[in-house]
Amino acid sequence: MQQQIIKKSVDGIVATRMSAEDRKLQILRVAVSLFSRKGFGGTTTKEIAQASGVSEAMVFRHFATKDELYSAILDHKACSGDKMNPEEMVSEALKEKDDRAVFERLALGALTHHEMDPEFQRLLLHSALEGHELAQMFFEKFVLRVYALLGNYITERQRDGALVKMDPAIIVRAFIGMVVHHSLNNNLWDPNRRLLRISNEDAARHFADILLNGISAGDRSKQEKRNGLKVSGASGKNASRKK
Fold first, then answer.
1. At the fourth CATH level, which superfamily is domain 5-75?
2. Staple partner for 151: which of 76, 106, 168, 207, CB 3.0–4.6 Å?
3. Fold annotation for 82-230
4. What are phi and psi of 234, to 5 degrees?
């Protein structure tokens, strides 16, 4: 249990003394909040210090440079622990070659993470728009991992004859595109869900359906029968004429 000591400073400001680790985590959280709302260019270390209730010198005591602070944000928010560990999310599904479970679990993990922590998504958008190094750090430490993980798996399944021959990077891009666009709509553009109100579980399942029905190397008619689809419209008329 962390110990906190309340004391009154010379200038009358009430401060809370925390352990070094707790203070570092507090500064980190404050920095993420400010960066996500004001961007990197619009946030100073002085503002981070004031919002954290510490001196600017204290901020630099825990994070010697801004680069160190940005790297710590990634380690804390995205690239450590099981919450955002793509390999851990789908380790069993990969071994079993369960295509649906691989894509569905990754989609659900990402959607859940974005819903629980929209600040980090906004932070990444700010960093990309401002040309900030945090965007590249995230790309190197996380995005490339997902591309490699799924790319290798897709290549293996293509060799098995389970998936059609197509550049794995295109398939991964299509998959991530669905997931990220859905999260952006929910967190930024349409928080009231006017366009689409759906649970993360249902969204992950449907995205996996869309992807796998598009790249599976099975007979299309069997897929349609399995999904309860019926031929209609112009294509249905053409099919009747051919008969």
1. Homeodomain-like (1.10.10.60)
2. 168
3. Tetracycline Repressor; domain 2 (1.10.357)
4. -60, -40
| Cα–Cα distance measured from residue 36 to residue 30, given in angstroms and rounded to the nearest whole number | 10
For residue 89, name the pLDDT band (cuts at 50, 70, 90).
Answer: confident
DSSP codes joined into one string, 52-98? HTS-HHHHHHH-SSHHHHHHHHHHHHTSSSSTT-HHHHTHHHHHHT-
Q: How far apart are CA 231 and CA 135, in angstroms?
A: 45
- In degrees and rounded to multiples of 5, residue 213 shows phi and psi of -70, -20
Q: Residue 78: pLDDT band by 50, 70, 90 thresholds?
A: low
Maximum Cα interatomic distance, the chain, rounded to a whole number of Å:
92
pLDDT at residue number 123: 81
SS3 194: coil
What is residue 165's DSSP assignment? S
Tell if the pTM clears 0.70, that is, is over it. no
Beta strands in the chain (DSSP E): 5-8, 14-17
Domains 5-75 and 82-230 share a fold: no
Q: Which of 233, 182, 71 is nearest to 62 (CA)?
A: 71
Question: Domain coordinates of the chain in residue numbers?
Answer: 5-75, 82-230
